[in-house]
Amino acid sequence: MVPLSWYLILSAALFTIGAVGVIVKRNVIAIFLCIELMLNGANLALVALSGFFGDIGGQLFVFIVMTVAAAEAAVGLAIIISIFRTRESLNVDDADTMKL
Amino acid sequence: MDTSSLGISYHAILPELITATAAIAIMVGDAVARKISRRTAGLLALAGCAGAAVAVFSLWGETGPAFYGGMIINDPLRLSFAIVFLAVSTLTVLISIRWIEDEGLPAGEYFALLMFATTGMLLMASANDLVMIFLGLEITSISTYVLCGYRRQDIRSNESAVKYFILGSFSTAFLLYGIALIYGACYISGAHPAATTNLQLIRERIADGALFSPRMLMAGAAMMIVGFGFKVATAPFHIWSPDVYQGAPTPVTAFLSTGSKAAAFASFSRVFILTFAAASVMGSPELRELQSAWTGVLAVMAILTMTIGNLVAIVQTNIKRMLAYSSIAHAGYALMGIVARDWQAVAFYMIGYAVINIGAFAVIEAIARRGDIRTSLSDYSGIGFRSLGLASVLSLFLLSLAGIPATAGFVGKLLVFKSAWGAGFHMLVVIAVINSAVSWYYYLRVIVLMFFSEPAAEFNPPSLTKSLGVALVIMAIATFYLGLLPGRALALLENAKNQATMIVAK
Asked: What is the number of structural domains in chain A?
């Protein structure tokens, strides 16, 4: 059987890849996908712990997280569309109206 | 588990139910009646806040076991912070009615989202489970993402929404990973093996030293500090807040800088003071080590936050951005209360800060006019005698933010400084006092600009509407009331403290 630590290492790796992606990516959509990757890294940790400990709570929590992530995606994409309409660019480096 | 032990009680969640119902009523009303008038939507929102406040007072003193299978708890922390949130929402609604009319924006969604955000904040304070904290936080965050971008045609508002959305979700992911780690760390084997996200159980297990892995708990706590740190805008996680606060519509900025900050502080106190701190008093040596580790980290964060906030505020040329940095500095002061493990001081600090900060933003909104065009500091030169009323209340709020005695800002600062001193963080208090002195410079600069410099451009004094006038009078009175006669509010909180220690001792 695959030990628990492998799952936790994989979830930490997913989370880290997502976090690094948020920092280095320049396209808003790509950044948004990296955030989803981070959330799913956390979900994997929850499911793995829940499975190994025989405790259903973690798996239920994952469903809640998925629902929330879907709501967040709906709002987030709407916001991205509205900035694309005024700015006509999805590059985050262009969003520099406010400075100092 | 039989159903009677689930603890279903509609009374326990009445405040949240009322605000959620008000939000849904506004939304449905808006859809059915094609477009409800802005006044009706605003009045519905006000009624929701008032009803929720009545519900909160009806719950006062009724501390019992947790409700809904341990998800919701009714304790002094929840009730104290609920009052802060409802005050913030009421004042925000009052200052929004005129603004939304001037801008010609749809009122239904606006007030509905505001009430949904309030519901989320109330849930964050009443949560007794990490899952509930996550849900409350997301309800608040998702509503406020939309509110930031409410002026859809304005590029600043769009940018504000995108930045808040990206960094808000980023921080949520950290919080969630922290929750996952704590969930695993608090596993116990034995006759009834279970991992848990329930804060009471987590406290008991830490106190008994019966943890699956203390290191995992440590890592989880660190991740949660990052997540909450983003939400309350503490350095080094504050970078988003100046842009978001400057670009968001002014009433929304007022709401964000007080309401969602206070909500994050409520959960912060719940997890770090009432769970981790209360547990490790009784826990093993390695848990006391964990305790001192996070206290040290938070103390350093508090110092960084107030110093960066105050120093960068000095060079700002836009008043909203200046107040955004001032808000970062104030988060640093409030964080001292968390370091000293005194959530009562934090609650009092947040109510005082809410009153004076929303007051300042209300005046800024009146002066900025349609489209948020007059927000540069130079727009304030020489307006003092042209618009004496507005300029004097703005001066009052700015002086109170700086911490002048006899106002709410002073008492709040005094309380957090006192409890940090009492807990032995002398260096922290000294640095905070120096920071406070530095902050006088940029608050006074605005007052000097208004009263003692030549008017730059033509300026027509803005006319006041009834709701804005009422809001300003309430906030001015509250500033003095909390500053001169804080006794009653403090007695309530002191009472709450005794009850809270009783609960923890049990």
From this structure: 1
Range(s) of the domain holding residue A84: 26-88
A chain contacts of residue B170, beta-carbon cutoff 8 Å? 19, 22, 35, 38
Residue A11 in domain: no
A44/B368 Cα distance (integer angstroms): 48
Residues B450 and B383 sit within 8 Å (Cβ to Cβ)? yes
Which residues, other chains included, contact B432 with Cβ-Cβ below 8 Å and sequence gap of 6+?
A: B302, B306, B332, B333, B336, B413, B417, B420
Nearest to B50 by CA among B90, B17, B82, B21: B90
Contact: B194, A68; criterion CB under 8 Å: no
Cβ of B184 within 8 Å of Cβ of A49? The answer is yes
Task: Write out chain B residues lying below 8 Å of A47, CB-based.
Answer: none
How many CB atoms are closer than 10 A to CB A99? 9
pLDDT beyond 50 at B365:
yes
Q: Is the dihedral of CA B367, B371, B377, B380 positive or negative?
A: negative
Which residues of B are less than 8 Å from A32 in CB distance?
A: 166, 169
Residue of B nearest to A35 (CA): B170
pLDDT tens for each residue of B455-496: 876 777 787 888 899 999 999 999 999 999 888 888 877 776
B176 CB neighbours in chain A (<8 A) are 39, 42, 65
Per-residue pLDDT of B48-105, as tens digits, reads 999 999 999 999 877 677 888 889 998 889 999 999 999 999 999 999 988 888 888 8
Q: Are B324 and B257 in contact (CB under 8 A)?
A: yes
From start to end of B94-213, where are the E strands? none
Which CA distances in Å does B5 have to A58, B68, B91, B178? 21, 8, 39, 29
What is the band of B370 on the pLDDT scale with cuts at 50, 70, 90? confident
Q: Do B247 and A38 touch (CB under 8 A)?
A: no
Residues 6+ apart with CB under 8 A from B299: B336, B339, B425, B428
Q: Do B187 and A64 touch (CB under 8 A)?
A: no
- Give pairs for A35-38: CB < 8 Å, separation 24+: A35/B166, A35/B169, A35/B170, A35/B173, A36/A69, A36/A73, A38/A14, A38/B170, A38/B173, A38/B174, A38/B177
Residues of A in contact with B152 (CB under 8 A): 82
Q: For residue A8, is it within any domain?
A: no
Query: Do the domain assignments include residue A54?
Result: yes
Q: List phi, psi (to 5°) of A3.
A: -70, 160
Average pLDDT score over chain B: 89
Interface of A with B in 37-66 (CB under 8 A): 38-39, 41-43, 45-46, 49-50, 53-55, 57-58, 61, 64-65
Q: Is residue A4 part of a domain?
A: no
SS (H, E, C) B402-429: HCCCCCHHHHHHHHHHHHHHHCCCHHHH
Phi/psi class of residue B188: alpha, beta or left (left: φ > 0; alpha: ψ in -120 to 50)?
Answer: beta
pLDDT at B362 over 60: yes
Task: Identify which of B159, B161, B195 has the shortest CB distance to residue A98.
Answer: B159
User: What backbone phi and psi angles, to 5 degrees, belong to A27?
Assistant: -95, 135
The amino acid at residue B366 is A
User: Phi, psi (5° rounding) for residue A95?
Assistant: -85, 75
What pLDDT, on a 0 to 100 scale, did the predictor assign at position B383? 86
